[in-house]
Amino acid sequence: MNRNAFGGTNLLTMQRPRTKRLFILFGRSILAVLSLAVVLVLYAEGYVIWYFEYGLGLPTESQLAALPTTGPLCAANPGSSYVPLSEIPPLVRKAVVASEDRDFYERTSIGPLARLASNIVAGRRPGNSSIIHAVSRQCLWTLVPECCKGPNLEWQFGTQVFTGRIERTFTRDRILEAYLNNAYLGRGAYGAADAATAYFGKSLASLDIDEIALLLTRFRMPMTSRHDSEWRNLMLDRMLAAGLIDQAQATAAKAAPLSLIAGPLRKP
User: Where, by residue number, does the polypeptide cross the bilayer (predicted)?
Assistant: First the structure.
């Protein structure tokens, strides 16, 4: 035992082992708390993944694959006209993709977390395909009407999971066909074919370039506006930039007067 100059025990020497034991005990306590927190987080994460993957009762990919391969993907709007993609004018199909979702055909079918990571690495804005997301929301109401009635997060996450399943199950052409036939475009019209009749009194196949451009604006703004000619011209500029029309066609279409017929302005 160490003694000081006065023959007593060195108190500093005696306190060191005690302090060391306290630090060890404190460190072990912190480690235990952190370990418990990690376990709880992993448990919560596992429950959330299970709940949104299976607990909501969303159709599985195999159930989605059993849906008809032709006609309405989901009968979101019974009574509306349904036009196969092959009968929709190529300019309409290409212009919708160029305007709404330029990466629609190039985007790979991966999970939401993997997509988020790839977007961060590539410096892209996070998010799903707007076309696929729209179709998933339309189909969710009809295929699983009892789903996602809880908090807003349940609807948001449920839609994300369902979007991924639709994206991995169906071809891009099938999804685009559903989008062009189900989207609400104003005047009580669902789908491009009904909208062509509601706005111009024509069939979809007989629309002129300026009418197609105006129709495309309805996918984002399904209401008549006093700025319709401006929105139409902006859409024509996008179609020109995408190489879908040439400068002469764009100039002629911008000079054309709006040819809207009178019609009811009903909300969906």
Answer: 22-44
* Coil, strand or helix at 190: strand
pLDDT beyond 80 at 71: yes
Q: SS3 for 9?
A: strand
The residue type of 192 is A
Boundary of a domain, candidates 183, 214, 237: 183
Q: Are 161 and 116 in contact (CB under 8 A)?
A: no
Plot region of 187 (φ>0 → left; ψ -120 to 50 → alpha; else → beta): left
Bin 71: left if φ > 0, else alpha if -120 < ψ < 50, else beta: left
pLDDT of 76: 66
Structural domain harbouring 239 = 189-268
Angle at CA of residue 176, ends 126 and 180, nearest 5°: 115
| Residue of 97, 103, 101, 109 whose CA lies nearest to 61 | 109
Q: Identify the burial level of 171 via C-beta atoms within 10 angstroms of its C-beta, where 0-12 means exposed, 13-18 middle and 19 or more buried.
A: exposed
pLDDT band at residue 232 under the 50/70/90 scheme: very high
Please report where in the chains the tokens 């939401």 appear, as a residue. Answer: 112
CB atoms within 10 A of CB 12: 9
Buried b (16+ CB within 10 A) or exposed e, 192-230: bbbbbbbbbeeebeebebbbbbbbbbbbeebebeeebee
Inside any domain, residue 134: yes
pTM of the model: 0.73
DSSP 146: T
